[in-house]
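Batch manifest, entry 17 of 40.
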Amino acid sequence: MFGYRSDIDWDAFSEREKAVIAALPHGSGIDGDWYCEKQQNGKVACYNSYHVMDENGFYRAWADFSIRFREDAWDDFRLMFHGRDSQYLAQHYQLRDYLEQTIYDVVGYDLEREAV
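Output type: C-alpha cells
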C-alpha cells in the first residue's frame, strides 16, 4: 500500500481500524510512510514525520510524531512529538494545531461517512 511501511502487520487490525489507518493524510508536509501498530492496551499507535520548510521554501528538517487512537473514540486521539528537535520544530512552526486539525478532518470525515 502506498504511503505505508511494508512491515505493518495488517492482520492485527480490525476492518474499522484498517479503514481509519487508510484515511490518514499524505502530503502537505506529511511526507513519510505511516507505520501503525496495535498496542497491548488496545490502542492503535501510528507514526510518521512532518517535513518542515523554512521561510524560503527549503526543506529544513523532519519532525517525528505519533498519534494514539482509542478504538471506541477515533476522533479522540493524542498527538505527540518525539525528541527535542521535533518538539522545537512543532512549537516554532505551530505544527500541533495543523496536524491535529488535519488528522481530525480525515478521521472525522471517515466517521461521518460511515454513519450515513
